[in-house]
Amino acid sequence: MQTQPTASHFINGAYVEDKSGEDIRVVYPATGEVIATLHAATPAIIEQALASARAAQKEWAKWTGTERGRVLRRASEIMRERNHDLSVLETYDTGKPYQETSVVDATSGADALEYFGGLAAAITGEHIQLGDDFVYTRREPLGLCVGIGAWNYPTQIACWKAAPALACGNAMVFKPSETTPLCALKVAEIMIEAGAPAGVYNVIQGYGAVGASLITDPRVDKVSLTGSVPTGRKVYAAAAEGIRHVTMELGGKSPLVIFDDANLENAVSGAILGNFYSSGQVCSNGTRVFVQSGIKEAFLTRLTERLKGVKMGDPQDPKVNFGPMVSERQRDIVEGFIAKGKQEGARLVTGGNRVDLPGFYLEPTVFADVTDDMTIATDEIFGPVMSVLSFETEEEVLSRANATDFGLAAGVFTADLTRAHRMAAGFEAGTCYINTYNDAPVEAPFGGSKQSGVGRENSKAAIEHYSQIKGVYVRMGDLEAPF
Ligand code: NDP
Predict the structure, then answer these.
(1) How far is the C-alpha of 352 from the C-alpha of 348, rounded, in Å?
(2) 293: number of Cβ within 10 Å
(3) Based on the number of CB atoms within 10 Å of its own CB, is 287 exposed (0-12), middle (13-18) or buried (19 or more)?
């Protein structure tokens, strides 16, 4: 594979190796073959990364926003020029089909670099007049940010964190998931090519313990995690010890509500996009599909027909539209949920089996007659398993949709405009969809409420989470004191 990174870590502008670190075997999910062996960061590597980021940040923050933005926009252009190679690598890293990676991963990473590159020059403070006196605010970087990523969108996650962090004048040490360690290294290479000073964006590999030791280092000012709720709880608690800023992009079990007046074809498309894209390994997926009882059977019939269009096989083949699970472990976890669904009495409509292919494939799976208390309706599965539940009234479905500790996303399909907006207002979720599902443009905020997260990525809102304001009071006249 020509596009492979040449060493495990990227620190201070160059690839670095330390073979004494624990082995990280990168497995191509479509074949089960080991395609690379990397090494987890040793304490010496962690030290190099933190020291280089700390030193680089001080200089980077002195650049003007226009200058920083120019680097990010150049990085975005390089990513677009290399979209093919980056997409091939993303497919090797994750197993997601090239048909997806070529239009979603490097391209959405490039969008983030372009958007925050454009915004960098417009990050300003404000002026507050107080009679003759005044206050001005300075919007300052936080300093050294640590990013920790999940395995489902390795290029996108690396860029969604790097772009706003760097635009605001921070430096970053990023640790990808050990399941998909390759793509973030290419992002680091591109940053340097685009003109970023060495040390501003570093990537080091490792299992959870490496992430844990980064979070508690006294030089670290902010931690941004994309991962599960249990990991989020640990990372948030560790960051709290040093009163560090956090962004938590965590898991979900989002509701997708389909009323009987909805356009059936669009609703089926929404349910497919919200359950089977990336083989279901998407945090915001609408995995609890509530269908109004009048159209439930029509919905299931049309969905089953549409699923005949699934094409599995070599994910590098652009005609393939459905890939394997990211790892054997993830396939086993998802199979465990499918067994639980059957055992607890849900009706298996389609799928549920492994596929006769090398690699970790599972069929797209639909359960109907799911009830709110079944495990497949309460737990995040992170695989291609849709649970269909039925409902009668708007009031009932809203209360059932919100009866969860998660609050990442929610969607509604209906032809009734006022009902759609009532539902969006009533959903306890950070990201809502009306007659669509799972769009994530960089211009719009993305993130969760309740236990699905803290903070927002993308949009102008992300600037709030990678900068802080300082108020400066200026007195123009004499100053009185009581004595
Ligand atoms: P995990 O929570 O298992 O891991 C996330 C990252 O945290 C990994 O890099 C992991 O390293 C690291 N980590 C694990 N333990 C610790 C620790 N104690 N301290 C510091 N870092 C640690 O998530 P997955 O990788 O399995 O990804 C799936 C999860 O991510 C799902 O819950 C999904 O919903 C969520 N997600 C959320 C998104 C959002 O934007 N809201 C988007 C994408 C996914 P290692 O892998 O080496 O253990």
Answers:
(1) 8
(2) 10
(3) buried
- Quote the tokens at residue 158: 């690396």
Is the Cα torsion angle 160, 161, 162, 167 positive or negative in sign? positive
Ligand 1 centre distance from Cα of residue 152 (Å): 9
Atom of ligand 1 nearest to the CA of 231: 2
What burial class does residue 242 get, using C-beta atoms within 10 Å of its C-beta: 0-12 exposed, 13-18 middle, 19+ buried?
A: middle
Q: Cα(359) to centroid of ligand 1, in Å?
A: 22
- Nearest CA to 161 out of 245, 81, 247 is that of 247
pLDDT tens figures, 276-335: 999 999 999 999 999 999 999 999 999 999 999 999 999 999 999 999 999 999 999 999
Token duo for residue 100: 């997806």
Per annotation, catalytic residue among 114, 175, 283, 296: 283
**Residue 283 and residue 152 in contact, taking contact as beta carbons nearer than 8 Å:** yes
CB 119 within 8 A of CB 168: no
Active-site annotation holds for 47: no
Q: What's this model's pTM, rounded to 2 decimal places?
A: 0.96
Any residues with CB less than 8 A from the CB of 371 and at least 6 apart, and which?
Answer: 346, 377, 389
d(CA 300, CA 154): 33
- Identify the sign of the CA torsion 47, 50, 51, 52: positive
Query: What's residue 4's pLDDT?
Result: 77
Q: Which residues contact 365 (CB under 8 A, 6 or more apart)?
A: 338, 348, 350, 351, 352, 384, 385, 386
382 lines ligand 1 (CB under 6 A): yes
The pLDDT-based confidence of 5 (bands split at 50, 70, 90) is confident
Residue 264, pLDDT score: 98
Are residues 287 and 384 in contact, defined by beta-carbon separation less than 8 angstroms?
Answer: no
Active site annotation includes 283? yes
Residues 49/9, Cβ–Cβ less than 8 Å: yes
Q: What Rg do the C-alpha atoms of the chain give, in angstroms?
A: 23
Distances (CA, A) of 79 to 102, 105, 134, 189: 11, 10, 44, 11
Q: Given the residues 96, 161, 186, 253, select the one marked as catalytic.
A: 161
Q: Contact at 8 Å (CB) between 323 and 31?
A: no
What is the rounded distance in angstroms from the CA atom of residue 65 to the CA atom of residue 72?
11
CA gap 438, 451 in Å, rounded: 19
Tokens of 481: 């004191």
Return the bridge partners of 136, or none: 127, 472
- The two tokens of residue 385 are 């398993």
